[in-house]
Write a structure and sequence with these properties.
about 600 residues, alpha+beta, OB fold (Dihydrolipoamide Acetyltransferase, E2P), 5 domains, about 25% strand, about 20% helix, extended, six-stranded mixed barrel, Dna-directed Rna Polymerase Ii 140kd Polypeptide, Chain: B, Domain 6
Length: about 600
């Protein structure tokens, strides 16, 4: 006897589970039972689970009977004519929806030619094993899974036109590519997804070759001429806002140019860009620490009697200023109201980002890298027909990663650009590589994609033939302008007196064991001293007991809290963090004795 559960509630038993399942499947396909019903027979526990609850993820599969698909040629003809409706296929039992539990009892084939008598279902298309972003990668069935995962993530980081009304929006951390293009090599998903409405990449001429050793380890070499003509230029937008908040006692903030009497007044130079209403004018060139929205706030923590005291009733400065690393042009400023009805001033900063050494780029196949060198046009290699590549890619990035899809896209892009057609690179259903080779040969090129190239510096012909073609390249949001970080002096932590952390706060650069070894190897002793002396302090040590002594500034004498005044006290330079450790050991009842020795 087999237990039967409906929506995880026990409803009875059946004699023959196999026949019971067969009957339910048959009745569901006929339409007698609701097509939303799914079942699962757990043979190990001898239990049958029926499920019609909400929230299950279900997917359509083609029904297979006796090793033959029920989606016959007649249905396919109807689909081509446009007369076939999806509901008809579901009602006639050609397609059924399967949930994750029922899939355990199914044997699904990826392709019709793989069908055997044991198969129960057939995938509508093999491409359904990929997600949305992965199916945007052309020829992805020629790439390894790890690179496809990386490729799908890279596409989410690419710059493009994320929304056509970006000039009217105040989004945080926005990048817009100036000249986005549709890819020459695309998949069917590009059309379904509407990629051409918000493209995020550009078609470039790419050559697989090394260049003076500059493109080692995934680095890219980019032609400076391409950058000058607008390749990968983008704009970065950053919003700032200030609200006139209301406080107890009817006090409110005020957006204006702060008075000199205001507590915390900066300097006249900081407020130079503000107009009469306290807001920076559109088109102003601003740099670090400039005030963009002037604001004054009422004094904090007023006591009962202080409200009537004129002397204490001084407003404080609370303007919105750029951080030390920000700069750019004021793109737009607007005055509106917040949800609470308070006056709200918003301002947007604009920065043009031109590709520079260190900016990150990638192809759709997970081949990412940073620019290592912008080469002048005169020094770039060129083909017999005078084509100068935009990007030089390191050929060593191919063998170990096995991104064959990357190589095929170069040929496909080459054929597409020469014929003026878009090439379909949909996974499992692609324009064959043989066809691409044949078309390339007909166009008068080598079918292998190789071309004779010349050294731009010496003018000599390269002994090796170079693999060159066109492909779609993405500029990623990780740019040097957003990562650049340096510090001379700045804030320190209260406890350890060491520099604070974080680029946004103007913190110090963390030098670990390995970085320290690099500086030692370079012989940069002064840099090391400067970094490791960041919390140096002078302490007084008693030579008798080895504990920390005290220097009395008022009486100008040194003494030890344990041994008194008649002992020798020496000044020792040490890290404040070590002095802190000594104090913490003392708090534990441990006696940290410092033994001083003299250098002669």
């Amino acid at each position: 006897m087999t237990d039967v559960f409906l929506n995880e509630n026990f409803i009875g038993t059946v004699d023959n589970a196999k026949e019971f399942i067969k009957q339910i499947r048959s009745e569901r396909r006929k339409g007698v039972l609701n097509y939303e019903l799914n079942f699962y027979w757990d043979e190990d526990y001898n239990e049958v689970y029926l499920d019609i609850t909400r929230g299950r993820t279900r997917r359509p599969l083609i029904v297979v009977e006796n090793g033959k698909s029920k989606l016959t040629d007649n249905y396919i003809e109807e689909a081509k004519n446009g007369t076939l409706k999806w509901d008809k296929l579901v009602k006639e039992g050609v397609i059924e929806y399967i949930d994750a539990a029922e899939e355990e009892n199914c044997y699904v084939a990826l392709d019709e030619k793989d069908l055997t008598k044991e198969h129960t279902h057939l995938e509508i298309s093999p491409v359904v094993i990929l997600g949305l972003c992965t199916s945007l990668i052309p020829y992805s069935n020629f790439g390894s899974s790890s690179r496809l995962i990386r490729g799908s993530k890279i596409q989410k980081q690419s710059l493009g036109l994320y929304a056509s009304n970006y000039l009217l929006r105040m989004d945080t951390d926005v990048n817009v590519l100036h000249y986005p293009q549709k890819p020459i090599t695309k998949t069917f998903m590009h059309d379904i997804y509407g990629w051409e409405k918000h493209p995020s990449g550009q078609n470039v001429v790419i050559a697989l070759m090394s260049f003076e050793g500059y493109n080692m380890e995934d680095a890219l070499i980019v032609s400076k001429a391409s950058v000058d003509r607008g390749f990968a230029r983008s704009t970065y937008f950053k919003p700032f806002n200030a609200e006139e908040l209301r406080y107890q006692g009817g006090l409110v903030d005020e957006v204006c140019i702060p008075d000199k009497e205001v507590k915390g007044y900066r300097s006249e130079k900081d407020y130079r860009l503000l107009e009469e209403d306290g807001v920076v004018y559109t088109g102003a060139k601003v740099k670090g620490d400039d005030v963009v929205i002037g604001r004054v706030s009422p004094p904090r923590f007023l006591g009962e009697f202080e409200e009537f005291n004129i002397a204490t009733n001084v407003k404080r400065e609370s303007s919105i200023a750029l951080s030390h690393k920000d700069n750019g042009i004021v793109d737009m400023s607007l005055i509106t109201e917040s949800e609470e009805g308070n006056r709200l001033v918003q301002m947007r900063l604009r920065q043009q980002r031109i590709p520079e050494v260190g900016d990150k780029f990638a192809s759709r196949h997970g081949q990412k890298g940073v620019i290592s060198y912008l080469v002048p046009l005169a020094d770039m290699p060129f083909t017999v027909s005078g084509i100068v590549p935009d990007v030089l890619f390191n050929p060593h990035g191919i063998p170990s990663r096995m991104t064959i899809s990357h190589l095929i896209e170069i040929i496909a892009g080459k054929v597409g650009s020469l014929t003026g057609k878009y090439i379909d690179g949909t996974s499992f259903d692609v324009m064959p590589e043989k066809e691409l080779r044949k078309m390339l040969k007909e166009l008068g090129f080598r079918e292998s994609g190789l071309e004779t190239m010349y050294n731009g510096i010496s003018g000599q012909q390269f002994k090796a033939k170079i693999y060159i073609g066109d492909m779609y390249y993405l500029k990623l949001k990780y740019m040097v302008a957003g990562k650049l970080h340096s510090r001379a002096t700045g804030k320190i932590q209260l406890l350890t007196r060491q520099p604070i952390e974080g680029r946004s706060q103007g913190g110090g650069l963390r030098i670990g064991e390995m970085e320290k070894d690099c500086f030692v190897a370079h012989g940069a002793s002064l840099l090391l001293k400067e970094r490791f002396d960041s919390d140096k302090t002078n302490v007084f040590v008693c030579e008798n007991c080895g504990m920390l002594g005290i220097y009395d500034n008022f009486k100008h004498n040194e003494y030890c809290t344990k041994c008194g005044a008649n002992v020798k006290i020496s000044v020792v330079e040490m890290s404040y963090a070590f002095k802190l450790l000594l104090d913490e050991l003392k708090s534990l009842g441990v006696y940290p004795k410092l033994e001083l020795g003299r250098k002669y």
